Amino acid sequence: AQSVTQLDSQVPVFEEAPVELRCNYSSSVSVYLFWYVQYPNQGLQLLLKYLSGSTLVESINGFEAEFNKSQTSFHLRKPSVHISDTAEYFCAVSGGNGNQFYFGTGTSLTVIP
Amino acid sequence: DTEVTQTPKHLVMGMTNKKSLKCEQHMGHRAMYWYKQKAKKPPELMFVYSYEKLSINESVPSRFSPECPNSSLLNLHLHALQPEDSALYLCASSQEIKDVWDRGTGELFFGEGSRLTVL
Fold it and tell me: Using CB atoms and an 8 Å cut-off, which of residues 9-68 of chain A contact chain B?
């Protein structure tokens, strides 16, 4: 069985400050890992994903996440946040050999001017 | 721009009404999903269609009836809903994983959702 834990339900941060959103997973098999972002009144958009290869993955808008197998983590980071980054962020895992996806409970990021 | 299109974007219905939500994708994906999402909560899986056949039903009440007319379309028929069914209904699609050697990209592509209000 797989599960995803996002320990921080709400993260307030000042504009231009760094941020880290934490994600831990449990799985007995190799996994794919994802971060999705959801802006108000919209669907979920893929922010970045880890399938294999380099453990550090980056998005086009400055976010990055590092897959750490020993700590079973996939934390999301950004060195300097913008107001427009205010959104709900969901970490997700899939088993890679099926079509079951498991979502974390989400982290609400609020960027304060 | 999302490549999964959902209609309508907003729907208000009474408890005795019959309505449908529609979803369309043209990415050639063979797995399609319905999720239900309440405010500030993660999406909850309702149904999965794989190669146009229902493969997963997460014990969803029969007042929700999914249909997959072809590989590009997914419908969710609604009848006799309750106010607690009010939520954002999300459609998604993904490449089907055929076997353990075909890992695909595993990514879910979501539509913008249909906001349902049951009065």
Answer: 32, 34, 36, 41-46, 49, 51
